[in-house]
Amino acid sequence: MRIMGLDVGSKTVGVAVSDAFGWTAQGVETIKINEVEAEFGIERIAELVKEYTVTEFVVGYPKNMNNTIGPRGEASENYKKMLEERFGFPVKLWDERLTTMAAERMLIEADVSRKKRKQVIDKMAAVMILQGYLDSKN
């Protein structure tokens, strides 16, 4: 029984899963989506839910710095509703302010090329979202 962390954007969804004990988060993949075409990657998430025996979701919730909710936050709220309707699992929204910037900083410090960073940044942000949630529980 694992928890899946998701960093939802308009073009990609970064995916991470917890270990079986709920202590650590590992990056899984980045799913390409198309928000404009209403393609949200739910079928691929369903495959990963089955593969990793997921029983809960944590979705990044991008609040503005003044704690208000903008368009991306509303998109995360809608994604949460889709997951709840499809899977019936608990779905938590987790404040993700600055996680993408922190993930990029970490990759830069690790001397990862710009091209490679672009390929893994969303997955890394999903790891940071999920790890923050797991740390708050333990």
UniProtKB/TrEMBL annotation:
Any GO molecular function: nuclease activity
Top EC class, one word: hydrolase
Family: Belongs to the YqgF HJR family.
Cell compartments where the protein resides: Cytoplasm
Function description: Could be a nuclease involved in processing of the 5'-end of pre-16S rRNA.
Alphabetical UniProt keywords: ATP-binding, Cytoplasm, Helicase, Hydrolase, Nuclease, Nucleotide-binding, Ribosome biogenesis
One GO BP annotation of this record: rRNA 5'-end processing
InterPro entries: RNaseH-like_sf, YqgF, YqgF/RNaseH-like_dom, YqgF/RNaseH-like_dom_sf
Annotated PANTHER family: POLYNUCLEOTIDYL TRANSFERASE, RIBONUCLEASE H-LIKE SUPERFAMILY PROTEIN
Enzyme Commission no: 3.1.-.-
Keyword DNA damage: no
Lineage, opening ranks: Bacteria, Bacillati, Bacillota, Bacilli, Bacillales
Record domain YqgF/RNase H-like: where: 1-103
GO annotation, cellular component aspect: cytosol
Domain of life: Bacteria
Protein name in the entry: Putative pre-16S rRNA nuclease
